Q: What sequence folds into this?
């Protein structure tokens, strides 16, 4: 298991990032696929702020707990069924970030309105059913709504982001909440008239679509991880 330890560490840090940066408080979770398998490392049923790399559970895509102590988070089906349906996905983030939830409830799709939002140039999926994803069938429905995209907004609930690695999926979640927050402020400043937003054209957004590429993700992760782990930024 030695080779998966750095991955487990990233998962623990990612969970603490989504809590520390306000994407989740008591609820929310980040997981990683155990490389090359239909299994994934997942935190137990506590705030993501408590995640510990030595206490992760291992689950399979049928929702069985294969190892570890404790009860998994009840929305484990989000992770299980996305891993089952998306072999390209090695990390899943589920959080309840307030700006994204607000967007889902005013009928506004995500729009690319600032540079970091351009990572979502192919669109953010929308899942309109309310309530928690606590069954296999609901997990399958959410995975179907996500399709081949990076992110799905879940009405009145939150978001799920996916990527080939934990750091990218986590930064995608952070960038998406930042983007939604700016979009809401712009809408408010424009009197609620979405037509006044100077959303990026597809061509403009594509020029910045490297926002979720490795160099940018690593640069952002360095900062977010340091804050989440309460490491001093100076010196
Ligand atoms: Zn949730």
A:
């Amino acid at each position: 298991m030695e080779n998966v330890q750095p991955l487990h560490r990233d998962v623990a840090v990612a969970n603490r990032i989504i809590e520390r940066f306000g994407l989740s408080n008591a609820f929310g979770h980040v997981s990683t696929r155990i490389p090359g398998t239909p299994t994934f490392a997942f935190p137990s049923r506590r705030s993501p702020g408590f995640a510990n790399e030595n206490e992760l559970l291992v689950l399979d895509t049928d929702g069985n707990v294969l190892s570890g102590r404790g009860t998994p988070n009840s929305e484990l089906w989000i992770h299980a069924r996305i891993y089952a349906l998306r072999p390209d996905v090695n990390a899943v983030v589920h959080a309840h970030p307030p700006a994204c939830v607000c967007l889902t409830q005013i009928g506004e799709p995500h729009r690319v309105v600032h540079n970091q939002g351009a990572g979502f140039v192919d669109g953010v999926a929308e899942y309109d059913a309310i309530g928690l994803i606590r069954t296999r069938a609901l997990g399958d429905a959410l995975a179907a709504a996500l399709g081949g995209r990076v992110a799905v907004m879940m009405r009145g609930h939150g978001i799920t982001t996916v990527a080939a690695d934990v750091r990218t999926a986590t930064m995608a979640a952070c960038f998406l909440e930042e983007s939604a927050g700016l979009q809401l402020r712009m809408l408010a400043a424009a009197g609620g008239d979405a037509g006044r937003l100077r959303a990026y054209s597809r061509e403009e957004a594509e020029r910045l679509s490297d926002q979720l590429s490795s160099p940018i993700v690593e640069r952002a992760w360095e900062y977010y991880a340091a804050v989440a782990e309460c490491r001093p930024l100076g010196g």
